[in-house]
Amino acid sequence: AVIQCNVRDITERRRTEAELREKKHFLQRIAEVTPNILQVFDLAERRSLFTNDNLASQLGFAHEEIQAMGSGVAQTLMHPDDLPRFEAHLAAVRALGDGEVARFEHRMRDRAGQWHWFLSHDAVFARDAKGDVREIIGAASNITEQKNAEEALRNTAQRMALATEASSIGIWERNVRTNRIRWDAQMFRIYGVPPTDDGFVSYETWRSAVHPEDAAHNEVVLNATVRRNGRSAREFRILRADTGECRTIQSVETMRANPGGEPEWMVGTNVDITERKQAERHIQLLMGEVNHRAKNLLSVVQAIARQTALTGDSATFTTRLSDRIQALAAGHDLLVRNRWEGVEVSELVHSQLAHFAGLIDTRVSMNGPPLRLSPSAAQGIGMALHEMGTNAAKYGALSNTTGTVHISWDRKLEPEPVFSMQWVEDGGPEVAPPSHQGFGRSVIERTVEASIDGKVDVEYLKSGFVWKLSAPISTVVEA
Question: Can you give the pLDDT at residue 55?
Answer without folding.
Answer: 79
